Amino acid sequence: MSEQFSRRDFLKLAGVGAATTAVLTGCGPASRYVKREPYMEMPEYTYNGQSTYYATTCRECAAGCGLVVRTYQGRAIKTEGNASHPLNLGKTCARGQATLQGLYNPDRVQEPSTGDWDAAIQVVADALKNNQPGEIAFLMGMAPDHLFDLVSDLAGATGMNAPVRFGALGMFEARATLSKAAENLFGEAALPYFDVGGAQVVLSFGANFLETWLSPVSYTRGFAGLREAQTKQRGTLVQFEARMSATAGKADEWVPLRPGTESLVALAIGRLAAEMRGGVMPRAFSGVDVLDAASKSGVKVETLQHIAEMFANSAGALAIPGGAALGQSNGLEVAEAVLALNALADNFGKPGGVYLSALAPNQAEYHRPASAKEMQEFVQRMTRGDFKVLFIHGVNPVFELPKSIDFKSALSGVGQVISFATFPDETAAEADHVFPDHHGLESWGYQRVVTGTAQPVLSGAQPVVSPFYNTRATADVLIAAAQLAGGRFAQALPFKDEVEFLQSKVALLMGEADGSFVAPEILTFMAYFQQHGGWWKNSDGRGAPDTASALNRNINGSMAEFAGDGEFFFVPFVSTTLAEAGANKPWLQELPDPTTTVMWNTWLEMNPKTAHELHIENDDVVRVVSEAGAVELPVYLYPAIRPDTVAMPFGQGHTAYGRYAENRGVNPNDLLGQHFNEAGDLAFAGMKVRIEKTGRKQNLSRLESMMGVYGEGMGEEH
Amino acid sequence: MIKRLFDWLKQPLGLIAVGIGFLALFSLAAYGLYTTQQSPEQPIQFPHQTHVAFGIQCLYCHPGASRGPAAGLPSQATCWGCHEQIQKTYNPDSELRFLLAAVQNNEPLQWVPVAMVPDFVQFNHRAHVAAGRNCEECHGDMSRVIIAENPQVMNMGWCLTCHIDAAGDDQEKLIKLSDCGTCHY
Q1: Partners of residue A165 on adjacent β-strands
Q2: Which chain B residues have a beta carbon less than 8 Å from that of A48?
Q3: How far apart are CA A48 and CA B63, in angstroms?
Q4: Who among A21, A24, A42 is closest to B75 (CB)?
Q5: Cross-strand partners of A391
Q6: A30 to A25, A76, A646, B141: CA distances (angstroms)
Q7: Is it the case that residue A136 has pLDDT exceeding 60?
Q8: Residues of chain B contacting A40 with CB distance shorter than 8 Å
Q9: pLDDT reading at A10 higher than 80
């Protein structure tokens, strides 16, 4: 036997032995190591062994989708969309699905930094009482929710600074530019609503509405309508942008124009379409030279002509401005030029056209989040020492604002910084105190739906599980602190707790007509509010913009100005899955980017042709230098980007925020300078960068196979 | 180096070493398998037999079995409903001190699951109760055990055997009960 016992046999035997051991020991039910905790007291509506479902609102972004969360014996098990909710009709995005990983995240802030809540409330009460009202500021997340109302009431009654809302999504969506353009054209600073579902031809200038833009779940539903359902005919999407986003990947046509020429292209298409229609040339398009626009933008005249033809001949033509197209020095002009196309198509207030978004039932007017310019001014006030106390909730500006605005240093100009963060994020790390709020699935509340549905919606939130840790609702902390501070503060918030405050606000809806339900008194009304996941009107609450002036405006087609002396246009885009706050959830880290399939990292998208000229290969680490800073990251050769452009996703590069997010990838915000457009939005797509080789390599983890991509792994280098 | 090792392994002493190594691996595997089949340690060594002897029905504590997929665990309030009136509960030496402490501290007891199927198997108690199966057919005679045990090796063969038996000569039923999608969906 010993003669036949080869090395190979030995290895086989050893392998089989090891595998057997592993399999047999691993066969035991892994769940056995998960302990089961029964209820202490079974809630009366719960049956033993059966799940209980709660309707609430997703807090992962500011869109305000309705969720139904399945719980079992007091634990949240699964989130799904609320099928009755007018905004998302039962759907969610990946971030909504992953919200459970925020709830169970091991890195949550588990107790107030003071140790116990009595001391914490005393700290807040002292901060309110011992400072002049004008020296107290609130910085909040983008969602217009009940806490924003509570703080607004408090500020209004005591003379404190009105709360400021900010979020990186709002900055990258250029919301301020969109609403400013609406104000210029329609006379109302509202947020336009684009009825993609009812349209036939959609021209999108930089709006990545299938990914993160405004209300991605609702717009994705609209896109499904465009493709088949609503018009019985397959609609067409044309996407204009320098790199192919996932939205452009779904489009029928992707037009990679030169960054900064969006307004020229929009005006040229408008002019050509107007010519085809005949009649008087509208003033908005009269100033543009089509040949000049074509040569500057790098889009062929034939392409412009055929798109204009499609646009002019369609009964349901729609044009959408958004994202990087507006985040440039001439962003406002781009938004106006694109909205003027809609005026040409005469689609204002018609199915498949442009509306003004429905206001939520308890909302008097659209209140947009702060633009980057306003945040810059806020930071300047912080630096000057205008604020003795700064409260921060629901936003992480150290990470979300460009590094050049330097929120972090400005914090040292503030006497006392109190953070209500759920996670130990970059901003909380700089705060004097962290008084953790509950996770969204442990919280009460409501949130206004700003856009994405025809109906006015107030989305309701309720705890689906008991809080896991020693956290407390920020509204409760503020109410208790105001009572303790006494005087005007106590008068402003005369409530027992957060729920009583919510009731006082929701009660106002009881008298409103045309609601999704009615109830004779507040307790029943609140019960329905929780059961349904909010209250909405059954009628269409959208407004029709006034088209009179839209075509008669003088729009000068100009090219954007770029900052910096690099040779590449720099396009930061928001990661579909990670965005401003998703990086601490492994499910989202593990989810491949829809276009590149890269996971767990940041990459620089570069055209293979450019890379070849620079002798850069896949996974080579390069240094990207802008006028504001530099970062190092690996290159991903991406054929669907212009050779003169590089792009980088926003979502990674955290220096805090828990074990899954920390020290992973880089933040494109580090490269952004302080340049703003006329509406005050950051010209984040108006930077030029330089690329330097470092000689290092870092393999990107990706789902796609490298084999066969540009000849890689097939024995030939190019 | 490796060549010398293999030369040595071919010697009688080396073969014995290989044999010992193999036996060690095998024992480890056997032990691993054995441990997966043992009843786990529980916070209270809950005497099922005593409760059965008092005539308490399975469904009194696990009513989920007749209503849905999971039988569920009784809330501590269910335990306490009887036990607060029983003298023995307050005996500091009995196992019940854990229940007493849990109720007093308002902390749930942490039970360890005994009968588990993997996540890719959808087991619904309700259908089985509705088909007239008794709890003990799968879970064993609880009047004989302290901690719940798992008398069956719960694998697919065991499930299928029962399903096929239950179908008998009824072809339609057989197709339904042996369809993959019955349990894997």
Answers
A1: A140
A2: 61-64, 71-75
A3: 6
A4: A42
A5: A138, A418
A6: 10, 20, 46, 25
A7: yes
A8: 75-77, 103, 106-108
A9: no
Mean pLDDT of all residues in A614-629: 95
Among A14, A18, A47, the residue with its CB nearest the CB of B67 is A47
- Give the pLDDT confidence of A516-546 residue by residue, as tens digits: 999 999 999 999 999 999 999 999 999 888 7
Q: How many beta-carbon pairs under 8 angstroms link A with B?
A: 129
Please give the Cα distance from A579 to A649 (Å, whole number).
Answer: 9
For residue A718, the model assigns a pLDDT of: 44
Q: Which of B65, B106, B118 sits opposite A49 (nearest CB)?
A: B65
Query: DSSP for B104-154?
Result: HHT----B---S---TT----HHHHHHTT--HHHHH--TTS-SS----S--
Contacts of A31 in chain B (CB under 8 A): 113, 116
With an 8 Å Cβ cutoff, is A29 touching chain B? yes
Q: What is the pLDDT of residue B140?
A: 87
Paired tokens of A395: 């936003």
The confidence band for A23, taking pLDDT boundaries of 50, 70 and 90, is: low
Orientation of helix B76-83 relative to helix B97-105, angle to 10°: 120
What's the confidence (pLDDT) of residue B115? Answer: 80
DSSP state of A226: I
Q: From residue A116, give the alpha-carbon distance in Å to each of A7, A110, A120, A418, A430.
A: 65, 11, 7, 15, 20
Between A105 and A709, residue with greater pLDDT: A105
Q: Are A270 and A551 in contact (CB under 8 A)?
A: no
Chain B residue closest to A29 (CA)?
A: B116
Query: Closest chain A residue to B25 measured between Cα atoms?
Result: A17
Residues 6+ apart with CB under 8 A from A181: A321, A332, A335, A336, A339, A679
- The pLDDT tens digits of the residues spanning B51-64 come to 999 999 999 999 88
CB of A711 within 8 Å of a chain B CB? The answer is: no
Is the pLDDT at A411 greater than 50? The verdict is: yes
Q: What is the mean pLDDT of chain A?
A: 92
ipTM of the prediction:
0.78
Residue with tokens 């300078």: A673
Return the residue matching tokens 């290989």. Answer: B18
Q: What is the least distance, in Å, from the CA of B12 to any CA of chain A? A: 8
Give me the residue from A17, A72, A73 closest to B25, CB to CB: A17
Q: How many percent of chain B have pLDDT more than 90?
A: 49
Of the segments A313-317, A539-543, A621-625, which one has the largest average pLDDT value? A621-625
Backbone torsion region of residue A663, taken as left when φ is above 0, otherwise alpha when ψ lies between -120 and 50, otherwise beta: left
Average pLDDT over residues A688-717: 79
Among B6, B75, B105, B135, pick the best mutation site for testing chain A contact (most A Cβ within 10 A). B75
Buried b (16+ CB within 10 A) or exposed e, A7-24: eeeeeeeeeebeebbeeb
Tell me the sheet residues that pair with A636: A605
Q: Tell me if A324 sits within 8 A of A241, measured CB to CB.
A: yes
Contact across the interface for B76 and A29, Cβ inside 8 Å: no
The residue among A2, A33, A37, A40 with the most chain B CBs within 10 A of its CB, best to mutate, is A40
* Cα(A322)–Cα(A174) distance, integer angstroms: 7
- The angle at the Cα of A321, spanning A292 to A577, to the nearest 5 degrees, equals 125
A72–B contact, CB cutoff 8 A: yes
- Is A537:A72 a contact under the CB 8 Å cutoff? no
For the four alpha carbons of A495, A497, A500 and A502, in that order, the dihedral sign comes to positive
**Distance between A702 CA and the closest CA of chain B, angstroms:** 27
Residue of B nearest to A34 (CA): B112
Q: State how far the Cα of A602 lies from the Cα of A583, in Å rounded to an integer.
A: 11
pLDDT digits (tens, 9 = 90+) for A665-681: 999 999 999 999 999 99
Cα distances (angstroms) measured from residue B119 to each of A30, B34, B70, B73, B123: 10, 22, 13, 19, 10
